[in-house]
Amino acid sequence: MIPLSLVTGFLGGGKTTLLQHLIERSQGRRFAYVVNELADADVDGQLLGLGEGEIVSIPGGSIFCRCLSGEFLRILQALPARFDDPEHPLEGVVVEASGIADPKVAVKMLQETRLDRVYDLRCIVTVIDPGTFLKLIHTLPSVISQVEACDVALVNKTDLHDEAALRAVEDAIARINPRARIIRSIYCRSELDILAAPPRRPLEGEYALCRDPRFASVAVPLDAPLEIAPLLAELDRIKDDVYRVKGFVPVPDGMVHVDVAAGRLNHRKVAVPAEREGGGGRATGRLVFLFDPKASERVEGAIAVLKAGPRGSSIPQPV
Q: Do residues 121 and 110 make contact, with C-beta atoms less than 8 angstroms apart?
């Protein structure tokens, strides 16, 4: 059987960073990665920089809802054949679930399709941001479900919080799931073996709604190079109104990766453009906004500013 592990956690906790470390540590081994995003555009898959045979992206919702579960299961069914080499078989599959996913239905999904005869569900890791966790467990049931399901709670970004705050988060995790192993990390670095087999645990869950009314998303394509300073100023203005803004922004001298989460704005130059138009070689980008529908007016105002473009740059309508 093929080991299969899940990486869960709310938006901006560090799931993709954890996958990047796993990829670095598993060079030369035959692993496949399935990346699921709530938004309709793939950003995380592009960041990981793997070949088409090693990574599959599933944007547009949660793989644990009825509308996307079929596609997810078809991908799992097809992966062994894609890696059909008796001398170098598929050694494991790591799934990064979307930030709103409730993974407790995973066992049921595998059993219903008899994929439990192909895959051995191993470790479920939930990545936790101490800066948002204590608030989110009172507003988003899926965050609690992620902790209830996990074998390992990876408390990330510990360098940004004092000991009292970290202990409060760890105490809350222990109350929700007393059997979870709690690991502290910075940039998701740890010696965790994500494909190790933990003690068996009962998991029972139901499929999620196809569209969760507590979340809205807009993807804004960016074709023309922008001046980065005005863009960052506008994103900084709305950083407390969004769950997440992420994507790639074309600038006059290259491409910038932008990430807004937990009220923090980060950006860095990247060497590889996010997208290329029809082989023409012109770098294009995209920003994805994930937010509470109650903040729609403020977020749409920010998008309107981006559409106008600093210094008159043209940005197409959101999709």
A: yes
Mean pLDDT of the region 51-56? 67
In a domain, 177, yes or no: yes
In a domain? residue 84: yes
Strand ranges, E, within the chain: 2-8, 31-37, 55-59, 92-96, 119-128, 152-155, 181-184, 216-222, 242-251, 254-261, 264-270, 275-276, 283-291
Tell me, yes or no, whether 63 and 155 share the same domain: yes
**Rounded Cα–Cα distance for residues 37 and 96 (Å):** 8
Question: Based on the domain organization, do 255 and 155 belong to the same domain?
Answer: no
Q: Where do runs of H (alpha helix) occur along 177-269?
A: 228-237
Residues 287 and 175 in one domain: no
Total domains in the chain come to: 2
Q: Grade residue 276 by pLDDT with cuts at 50, 70 and 90.
A: very low
Q: Tens digit of pLDDT for each residue in 140-188? A: 888 999 999 999 999 999 999 999 999 999 999 999 999 999 999 999 9
User: Where among 136, 163, 184 does a domain terminate?
Assistant: 184
CATH of residue 121: 3.40.50.300
Locate 31 and state its tokens: 């692993």
Q: d(Cα 91, Cα 300) in Å, to the nearest integer?
A: 45
Q: How far apart are CA 178 and CA 181, in angstroms?
A: 8
CB atoms within 10 A of CB 117: 10
